[in-house]
């Protein structure tokens, strides 16, 4: 109960959501927390709304520099033992901080919770993420990270980070990904234990403008693959810090999620290939092999991914585009 949470909210033109995010922290039943809001040069009514909370938040207003720089600044202002980078369009569920605090222990890099996907009005849609396999252990997470560069993890708001962990690489340098969670998630298995709470303590708002909405632009798929290369570089740096052998670059060809992004990129924008050695032939080979490789995804899920990938890779372009659009709608 003596541990302090720092909730850092980087906001850019989310005036219609920022009040919900701040209020979701204010109603938490944990005695010690601070809310740090970094407005990243918003041009809407965000500043007025943030200032309306007065002394309840520590508010900072900066020129637009992107999420990474906003969170770097916010972390420098924070003093909590546990840090949550809450996206300005997401919401903490009541009891979230108490649940995280109840399982916290020395040696953790993070505690992760599930997230419920909701629409703009916070009505539940689709499934809870991530899917948590049975008998999840840190040993398995580390194995999956090494062999497939993937493990069951929520995006940004679903992670509560150890300050000691973050201090090892903050401020995040420009060589890493522009999105804070990408680097932190990649490094976490190599620099501490991970505890998982199988309860959706965060509402993950889907509104069409999310960075995760890949269907907005065909080039988003190659962008995501380029981000995976930066995550791999961050993971290698984390291993160096911990005195561990680095993960092989081959792991990028073994992940079920990344396979789907590779397939979409190879079909929609074949001229952009962040993974230089990638090809439709290699993706087809990997689509077959994911059925037999270690993964946190259940066999039937890998079977669906394998079948989808084979269809998307081998059908005529017009049909392939429809298959991809349906998957990422």
TrEMBL record:
Superkingdom of origin: Bacteria
Any one Gene Ontology molecular-function term assigned to this protein's record: transferase activity
Keyword flag Calcium: no
Short name of one Pfam family: Glycos_transf_2
InterPro entries for this protein: Glyco_trans_2-like, Glycosyltransf_2, Nucleotide-diphossugar_trans
Alphabetical keyword list: Transferase
Domain Glycosyltransferase 2-like, residue spans: 6-150
Protein name in UniProt: Glycosyl transferase family 2
Organism: Kozakia baliensis
Lineage, highest ranks first: Bacteria, Pseudomonadati, Pseudomonadota, Alphaproteobacteria, Acetobacterales
């Amino acid at each position: 109960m003596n541990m302090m949470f720092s909730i850092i909210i980087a906001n850019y033109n989310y005036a219609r959501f920022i009040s919900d995010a701040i209020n979701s922290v204010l109603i938490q039943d944990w005695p010690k927390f601070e809310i740090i809001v970094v407005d990243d040069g918003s041009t809407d009514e965000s500043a007025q709304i943030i200032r309306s909370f007065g002394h309840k938040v520590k508010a900072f207003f900066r020129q637009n520099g992107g999420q990474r720089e906003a969170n770097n600044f916010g972390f420098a202002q924070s003093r909590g033992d546990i840090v949550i980078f809450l996206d300005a369009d997401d919401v903490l569920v009541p009891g979230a901080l108490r649940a995280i605090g109840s399982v916290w222990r020395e040696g953790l890099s993070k505690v992760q919770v599930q997230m419920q996907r909701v629409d703009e009005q916070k009505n539940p849609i689709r499934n809870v993420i991530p899917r948590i396999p049975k008998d999840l252990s840190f040993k398995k997470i580390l194995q999956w990270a090494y062999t497939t560069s993937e493990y069951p993890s929520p995006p940004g708001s679903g992670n509560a980070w150890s300050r000691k962990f973050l201090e090892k690489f903050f401020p995040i340098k420009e060589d890493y990904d522009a999105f804070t969670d990408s680097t932190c998630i990649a490094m976490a298995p190599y620099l501490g234990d991970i505890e998982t709470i199988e309860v959706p303590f965060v509402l993950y708002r889907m509104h069409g403008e999310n960075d995760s909405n890949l269907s907005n632009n065909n080039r988003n798929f190659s962008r995501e693959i380029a981000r995976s290369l930066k995550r791999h570089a961050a993971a290698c740096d984390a291993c160096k810090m911990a005195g561990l052998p680095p993960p092989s670059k081959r792991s990028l060809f073994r992940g079920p999620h990344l396979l789907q992004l590779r397939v979409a990129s190879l079909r929609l924008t074949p001229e952009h290939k962040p993974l230089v050695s990638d090809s439709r032939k290699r993706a087809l080979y990997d689509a077959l092999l994911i059925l037999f490789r270690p993964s946190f995804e259940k066999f039937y899920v890998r079977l669906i991914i394998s079948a989808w990938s084979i269809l998307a890779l081998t059908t005529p372009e017009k049909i392939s585009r429809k298959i991809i659009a349906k998957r990422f709608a």
